[in-house]
């Protein structure tokens, strides 16, 4: 969590302390919307607190509905207001008992400018990376800014998360570790999400792959599928197996998710199916060395400024 | 809308007529969950109506939040129940005035078995279509089951939707029509969605494309981008331009959406970026004739049964 602007321990009288509990939303004074998602029913605003100095952020998101919620809602207290009736279809607005229809609310106070930026919606751009632009812009940027891979090496060396490993092949050339992604609860197959991390330390991303890596890729494909089939009973045809480009860390890894789960980063501008990567490399061993690969960048990313200077934006 | 089982006009006394208006949800008797989406806060159940024969379907979805909603919620009537306070982060359950926090409710009654099936969550599979499987399974299936393309020809011939056309190039080889997708409101650039439909009638899908079609594809890419830049002020770097494979109709068309909009069918198992298609065909003119292409099929699709008979599921 980001540090507060009052890190020196001194507090002025006009600042609500962190421990102040709010009883309702009346104290939040709206200034502007930072982000909205009408699909996930999420909204986030910047504002302030009544009679207080400094900025605050309010985040609201409607709660999901499960079977228990639905059953609890089927009572007289769930008021219906007719919109229209057409043949067998009845459309209503429904206003249930407030305690059966909550939102998740987060108030952040005091909120620094940096934190407000983090909650503000980011303008995203798509760029087309030719092999030449990879060499001149992307690769130097990766080498300069990449985070430590210590946590990856700790997993490979059994120094951490050893108990989380679902499958392991320790061949130095074609070996890998398979473990649940941190975002997965490890139980619900509908949202299944595992990560295969290769043992070799010399492949950064999809861009580095050539025909010589086919034994590695096929090994992960076959043994990953078999492990998930055996352990979670989800067959190959219900798995989305893919790379991210750009990845979030530059040590080659592959995502295994349930095809029914809309995991982050599965869209066409970021995902590359392992089976397509394998057939591409079989037909064209230098496909990824020679390809123009698209990926997205937030406008505030320094790499975007470099791409913008090169291209027609 | 699907037909009712009471299409003969006769109604028995025990069946609520379509015109019966519900005042609340107390009449719905729960039987089983048909579908849940915790991301979009959607749930759908099969059941019946109290003292009535036959099945009913109840669909509930939380409403999205906009700026007006958020401002209206910042009052004393939005009760907060503390979950935890950690430094500057305050987490609460929020229970607003019911009329500021509605759901969309649909009751379908009477509901046929076919309609219940339609609302039930579909098990989805991914299949790998080699060129041989395209010829032996997919193509015969398309030819046998495809819907009429009359509505597409009506647009191309200016017999319908003429006023919706945003741009047109009537070259017989490289021409196309660009118009807003029916799902788009035509206003909000955040959810921008247009469709380019080619004039030629001899290309069914991505699978048919070869190097000889590069002038057509580049023409759509360049003129589509220019039109959207001029008319909607959204530059090329903020557009996702892609094919669906399989498409929903077999007359070649290309989707233009805002990169920020998670439109349906943009995931890696269905989307193919136009810029990648162009660079693939430039480097390998028969890339799509020779490729193994993945796509998804619902388990109930007859084509899935054929793929299942061929492969290892």
UniProtKB/TrEMBL annotation, chains A, B:
Q: So where's the catalytic machinery, residue-wise?
A: 253 (nucleophile)
* Annotated EC: 3.6.1.59
Q: Does the keyword Glycoprotein apply?
A: no
GO terms for molecular function, please? 5'-(N(7)-methyl 5'-triphosphoguanosine)-[mRNA] diphosphatase activity; RNA 7-methylguanosine cap binding
The primary location reported for this protein is cytoplasm
Q: Name one Pfam family in it.
A: DcpS
Positions bound to substrate: 151, 161, 181, 183, 244-255
Enzyme group, top EC level? hydrolase
Per the record, the GO terms for biological process are: deadenylation-dependent decapping of nuclear-transcribed mRNA; mRNA processing; RNA splicing
The UniProt function text for this chain reads: Decapping scavenger enzyme that catalyzes the cleavage of a residual cap structure following the degradation of mRNAs by the 3'->5' exosome-mediated mRNA decay pathway.
Q: What is this protein called?
A: m7GpppX diphosphatase
The source organism is: Bemisia tabaci (Sweetpotato whitefly)
